[in-house]
Amino acid sequence: MTAAPPTIALQTMQRARRARGGVAARIVVPLVVIGIFVVAAIVVPIVYHYDPLHAELLVRLKPPGTAMPDGSTAFLGTDQIGSDLFAEMMDGARISLLVGAATIVVAGVIGVLLGMLAGYFGGWLDMVLMRIADIQLAFPSILLAILIASVLGQGVLNVVIVLSIANWVVFARVARSQVLTLKNREYVEAARTLGAGHAHLIFRTLLPGCIAPILVIATVEFGQVILAEAALSFLGVGMPLGTPSLGSTISNGTQYLATAWWISTLPGIALLILVLATGVLGDALRDRFDPKLRSA
Amino acid sequence: MLGYVIRRVLLAVFVLWGVATVVFVIVRMVPADPALLIAGDTATPEQLAALRHLMGLDQPLIVQYGQYLGQALTGNFGVSYTQGVPAMQLIGQVLPNTALLAVLACALALVVSFPLGLLAALRVNRFGDRAVTTGSLVAQALPGFWIGVVLLLIFSRTLKWLPSIGLSEPSNLVLPVITLALPFIAILTRMTRSGLLEVVGEGYVNTARAKGLPERTVIFPHAVRNALIPIVTVVGLEFGTLLGGAVVTETVFSFPGIGKLLVSSIQTRDYSVAQACVVVIAACFVVINLVVDLLYAYLDPRVRLAK
Predict the structure, then answer these.
(1) What's the pLDDT tens digit per position in A201-211?
(2) Where are the alpha helices (DSSP H) in B81-173?
(3) Rounded to 10 degrees, what is the CA torsion of A98, A100, A102, A108?
(4) Which comes out higher in pLDDT, residue B170 or A124?
(5) pLDDT tens digits along A151-178
(6) Which of A33, A212, B141, B182 could form a disulfide with A277 if both were Cys (CB 3.0 to 4.6 A apart)?
(7) Which residues in chain A have their CB less than 8 angstroms from residue B142's CB?
(8) How does residue A295 score in pLDDT terms, banded at 50, 70 and 90?
(9) Contact between chains at A135 and B149 (C-beta distance less than 8 A)
(10) Which residues make Cβ contacts (< 8 Å) with residue B189, sequence separation at least 6?
């Protein structure tokens, strides 16, 4: 509330500053949240001596806040075999983060490489790759994942393979379209004129220009992959027994809804916070680096 | 327009062939011997060989593939070994349920998201907009299976307002429809909002305002009509996600639909049913997208003239 009415220029400046501040907060806050998850996922299972195969049947299905016989407090309760739910959730988050990161790296490297090659060389390679992409986008990707997972069997590595197969297309499409817009720019022409070979043009000249949109897509996909892993584990085709995942913990809890509501409910909230953080981060990065990039 | 229709139909046929092929390849990678699954461990080697011959498993892979494609064209995906009836018959029994679920979820999403998106667009950056935008962000991050479990816990276990699982009465539909619709509502709300905001900046809307039309008339027939076009496409595209979500939702609610059938057939290693489910779901998706594409081209001449 200033005495003189603010000029239009001042208003615009203030609005721009506020918008920039907003974007910065939307990048920093989710990063902090994800960071807390990473630290907790590493530290908590160690501190609690968490062992997924160890059953403590005397303290099973205890509600949040129950004092345990060893003097500690299970402040999120215990599950159907007496494991501390908080430790189990953080161990599950570890799997979620691990699978998410590994999948993004595998799908990202394969997708970006193929997408760039398709965009750069065009011709039959481009044709074949993009038709494969068309076919794959005709599947709801969870369907493909369920089918492949049922064939490969359960396991961390298999889930990463399944989700990479289901997700490389997105990276390929983004990388391809980015290469298509960049490859006739003057700086690329200049490099070519100076005698740069295909490999140099692709990796040294074009790749840097693809990084920003790929980073945005990777962030958005990270959350989606975590959700997909949880869904696969919930359906029983994801993580094997003995490897707790947020999805399988929720699934186990459904049998105890009447007596122990917390087993299914709390891991879902953790999952929601994690996915929400990546979603907000993805949106903010998109606004920051690439306003034109919409769902690709 | 005719050329566009032909191109689109050909692409759809190609995609369907691709889907059928991918499914064939994946299912043939199964380490388990289908004949052994059907005959059981007690079968003699002669019985197994006879069964393999009957199922065509002793033929070269390429011949099997040809037979599979030919049969798939006529909707024949073999017999379910757990239930002894054709896979398509099982699907025929449950597909109407899934269709009902998906259509109701779609309708609910449209009815809820349109006013929300409109509200957000008309009050950009004010409280109403912030609330709607944040809400849709959260709804998009919701794990579908988890929200299903939470709804069950609240409305069926605790409040006892609604029946829990199965499909014996219409009220069984309420929770699955809400579960399935939630992420869809989120996406459609965001689309409606951004679509309207884009249109509002265009010249013809300014003209309508300059003519002195009341704001209501400017928004309603003028702006909304063009903002609807991208929404039609998103509904088509997201319908596939909806069908994928149905797999999870149906499992949570033990809802007798094609998704539940898929998951249970995979658990019992009944691959003829599983592959039929996947092909049918993908086919539904492709056909719906084809219809949406054609509808889109009809609504917006720029699309069919572009390529």
Answers:
(1) 888 888 988 88
(2) 87-122, 127-141, 144-151
(3) -160
(4) A124
(5) 888 888 888 998 998 899 999 999 998 9
(6) A33
(7) 272
(8) very low
(9) no
(10) B112, B113, B116, B117, B120, B132, B136
- Is pLDDT above 50 for B213? yes
Residue that has been written with the tokens 């197994």 in this structure? B48
- Calculate what percentage of chain A has a pLDDT beyond 90: 22
Residue A205: CB atoms within 10 Å: 18
Tokens coding B86: 């054709």
Host H or E run for residue A67:
strand A66-67
Q: Do A140 and B243 touch (CB under 8 A)?
A: yes
Does the distance separating the beta carbons of B143 and A140 come in below 8 Å? no
The interaxial angle of helices B258-267 and B224-252, nearest 10 deg, is 40
The phi, psi pair for A57, rounded to 5°, reads -65, -20
Segment B249-265, tens digit of pLDDT: 998 888 899 999 998 88
Listed ranges A252-266, B22-36, B173-187, B212-226; the one with the highest mean pLDDT: B173-187
d(CA A118, CA B289): 25
The residues, ordered by sequence, that sit 6+ positions from A84 with a Cβ below 8 Å of its Cβ are A48, A50, A68, A74, A76, A78
Complete DSSP assignment for A132-180:
HHHHHHTS-HHHHHHHHHHHH-SSHHHHHHHHHHHHHHHHHHHHHHHHH
Give the global pTM. 0.84
Residues of A in contact with B263 (CB under 8 A): 146, 235-236
Please check whether residue B271 is in contact with residue B27, taking contact to mean a CB–CB distance below 8 angstroms.
yes
Name every chain A residue with its beta carbon within 8 A of the beta carbon of B190.
none
Is residue B89 within 8 A of residue B66, CB to CB? The reply is no
CB-nearest to B137 from A148, A247, A276 is: A276
pLDDT reading at A5 higher than 60:
no
Residues 6+ apart with CB under 8 A from A272: B138, B141, B142, B143, B146
Would you say A87 and A44 are in contact if contact means Cβ atoms under 8 Å apart? yes
pLDDT confidence tier of residue B205, bands split at 50, 70 and 90: confident
Residues 6 or more apart in contact with residue A128 via CB below 8 angstroms: none
Of A278-282, B225-229, B273-277, minimum mean pLDDT range: B225-229
Contacts of B295 (CB under 8 A, 6+ apart): B232
CB A227 within 8 A of CB A144: no
What is the per-residue pLDDT for B178? 92
The radius of gyration computed from the CA coordinates of chain A, to the nearest angstrom, equals 24
Angle formed at CA A190 by CA A186 and CA A194, multiple of 5 degrees: 170
ipTM of the predicted assembly exceeds 0.90:
no
Nearest CA-CA distance, residue A292 and chain B, Å: 13
How confident is the model over A36-68, as pLDDT tens digits?
A: 999 988 888 888 878 777 777 777 777 887 777
Task: State the nearest Cα–Cα gap between B234 and chain A, in angstroms.
Answer: 11
CB contact under 8 A, B143 and A272: yes
The span from the CA of B69 to the CA of B88, in Å, is: 15
Q: At what angle do helices A262-289 and A8-47 cross, to 10 degrees?
A: 140
